[in-house]
């Protein structure tokens, strides 16, 4: 039981970071809420896997998962903009 609980706390922190990001944004709608929570949970899960693989302490794993949940939407926009710009330059579209 302790293994399940200790592995779910970072994900809860990541989802709560996504909720904080949603509350700070200007667009408050149900689809945005569910998309933000899903994205934050997914980013938190990836960060949790990375941090546990690197052997970080549970406190640091929780901290990084919370930050990744808060920053997930902004980082996705940065990646999306970079990918779109790269495709436009490859296709030479104005």
In brief, what are we looking at here?
With 94 residues, the protein is mainly alpha-helical. The protein is built from three helices and no strands.
Radius of gyration: 16 Å
* Arithmetic mean of pLDDT: 84
- Uncertain spans, ≥5 residues at pLDDT below 50? none
Reading the helices and strands in chain order gives HHH
Helicity, in percent?
A: over 70%
Identify the overall geometry.
Answer: flat
Distance between the termini: 56 Å
Class inferred from helices and paired strands: mainly alpha
The main β sheet shows up as: none
Q: How many β strands by DSSP?
A: 0
Strand content: under 5%
Q: DSSP helix count?
A: 3
Reconstruct the topology from this structure:
Blueprint (H helix, E strand, L loop, with lengths): L1 H23 L5 H25 L3 H34 L3
Structural notes for this entry:
The protein has 94 residues and is mainly α. Helices cover 87% and strands 0% of the residues. Helix 1 (2-24) crosses helix 2, helix 1 crosses helix 3 (58-91) and helix 2 crosses helix 3. The longest helix has 34 residues, at 58-91. The radius of gyration is 16 Å and the shape is flat. The termini are far apart.
């Amino acid at each position: 039981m302790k293994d399940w609980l200790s592995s779910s706390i970072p994900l809860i922190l990541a989802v709560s970071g996504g909720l904080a990001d949603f509350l700070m944004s200007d667009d408050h709608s149900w689809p945005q809420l569910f998309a933000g929570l899903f994205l934050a949970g997914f980013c938190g899960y990836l960060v949790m896997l990375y941090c546990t693989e690197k052997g970080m302490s549970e406190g640091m794993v929780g901290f990084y998962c919370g930050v990744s949940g808060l920053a997930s939407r902004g980082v996705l926009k940065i990646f999306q903009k970079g990918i779109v710009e790269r495709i436009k330059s490859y296709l030479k579209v104005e």
